[in-house]
Amino acid sequence: MAVAKQALDTAGLSEQQLREMHYKMALGRSLSARQRVLQRMGKGPITYSGEGHEAAQVGTAYALRPGHDWVFPYYRDIAVALTLGLTPRDVLMSFFARRDDVNSGGRNMPSHFSHPQLRIVSEGAPVATQCPHAVGCALAAKLRGLDEVSVAYFGDGGTSPGDTHEAMNFAGVLKVPVIFVCEFNSYAISVPWRKQAAVENVAVRAQGYGFPGLTVDGNDVLAVYRAMKEAVERARAGAGATFLEAKTYRLVPHSSDDDDRRYRTREEVEDWSQRDPIGRFTRQLKELGVLDEVREKETAARVEAEVDDATNYPEAAAQPEAASALRHVFVEA
Ligand SMILES: Cc1ncc(C[n+]2csc(CCOP(=O)(O)OP(=O)(O)O)c2C)c(N)n1
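Above: the input entities. Below: the structure tokens describing the complete assembly.
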């Protein structure tokens, strides 16, 4: 109790905010699971799940100002997108590639979240190309004297491409308001971290680029939130970049096309399932008296209804017109 209370005090969040974070985590989990089911039923395309990453995603996104700060998520960041204001309908309209999909009008790959008004910028398919984009965006804010922060999200695999190193280098040199969030789940598809780098905590690299790097328990939503809040404050105050490494685990295969039994033991997956970030936060909130059985059931029912609604909504929605296929590809007369 004392530990939970202390965590709450330092996070500075109201009970309502804590419940909202819990709800967003549950929504991300359920919507991800629904997409996997739809793919298996042959109704939807390839899907990338955020299951297991919810504390890292909601904890970081909750510290931002939606529609003010610029967010460059990667394909696993469903709960980042939902926390910033993308709706379950938006997500599934994109999944089913409908004409009125806000992400891209049905053009982009699934899970390439974007929303102009919410300042969520679509990633490119090549891993980590969003890192230099985020640094460029942060430089623009700095040159214009704006207090907008840019955030690049990526996995541990995303720390290896040259793009990330170049982005981090210029973030340090130019001292721009950018935050690098690494959702460290120990695998780049089937490649374990130990085959990718010889350091345990990738956050140590930040020092070499001239700004702070922090490693946090990425399954502890309040620890993530506190670390991110500090990074955001630093960025807004003109103190430059931060690298935040959130240690977490994806509870399901890399994508619906992956069989993780070929490279992860069931014991390992089970061990991490015991540390599920949602179960952990639920217990913490109950201990604090912020959540009880009744509210928990209400949240579950609300999530289920929203996910069902989002699943059904695209059924009646228009398909993109074939004649529009080349829009945004070539200049139109
Ligand atoms: C430059 C590049 N190389 C390879 C790929 C294929 N690819 C897609 S996702 C991925 C794994 C990335 O792993 P990580 O960044 O750790 O994120 P995670 O999926 O584990 O959350 C790879 C290798 C790609 N999209 N782009």
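Note for the figure: The beta strands are 70-72, 150-155, 178-184, 187-188, 191-192, 213-217, 242-247.
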